Fold this sequence. Notes:
- By secondary structure, this protein is an alpha/beta fold.
- Helices cover 44% and strands 11% of the residues.
- Helix 5 (161-174) runs antiparallel to helix 6.
Amino acid sequence: xxxxxxxxxxxxxxxxxxxxxxxxxxxxxxxxxxxxxxxxxxxxxxxxxxxxxxxxxxxxxxxxxxxxxxxxxxxxxxxxxxxxxxxxxxxxxxxxxxxxxxxxxxxxxxxxxxxxxxxxxxxxxxxxxxxxxxxxxxxxxxxxxxxxxxxxxxxxxxxxxxxxxxxxxxxxxxxxxxxxxxxxxxxxxxxxxxxxxxxxxxxxxxxxxxxxxxxxxxxxxxxxxxxxxxxxxxxxxxxxxxxxxxxxxxxxxxxxxxxxxxxxxxxxxxxxxxxxxxxxxxxxxxxxxxxxxxxxxxxxxxxxxxxxxxxxxxxxxx
Length: 318
């Protein structure tokens, strides 16, 4: 992205969902320059007012031409899945993609990206997986992850996973510390990997999660060794029951969850240029070679490259 504040434009065609428009505004549209002076500029692009449920109306859009200056385009979920979106939306997406801008879809907005011919790998809401495969058989589609990134094209699964994708984008643009602060402000979980399962076998308990004390202990003692038996002992469960309930309530295994938390903590620590990679590895409970390999697998760059990219901007944002 350029040195100026990046411009995010939401393409509000007539069939889009109000939730994803609101999510995009919450993620990118609220002025958060208190966190970083390069925080996004934000605009809604459309041709005429939108109306939902008869009485809800949204107007005041910028003309579609503003998309030509966007650093990132966002396509919310929309209801006309197997029909191409309005021509101005397709044109805006194709123009942005050709010039290397980031293109993002929330939920069934992936269909719009497919109709624009931008997809090689993608996900969308699991309920529409078969429809997507029929419409775009040439796309490598995966219904499992929360979100998928393919170069500058990002696709999110369901309505809630667009928050996860948005936080991942914020982390890429401004560093993990800023993303964590945004997550805290919107009362969301810190950035979750796109590889996490899109849905789980059992509903997440709303009132109380019996495994939370074990997870909290692990987070507070990441440098220590942890195993399924040791964590299960903290909540008075057998290792087998603990592992089964862990997957049911989080959608991932204890080992994968712990590794993800260690990498997430490493991202924050690496933004301090005074910490060596060896020290960061020790503080998150990993051997340095393991940190390097797992960091690259989950983040897409080495710890050294991540620190080079984000330590300076993190200090400016502090």
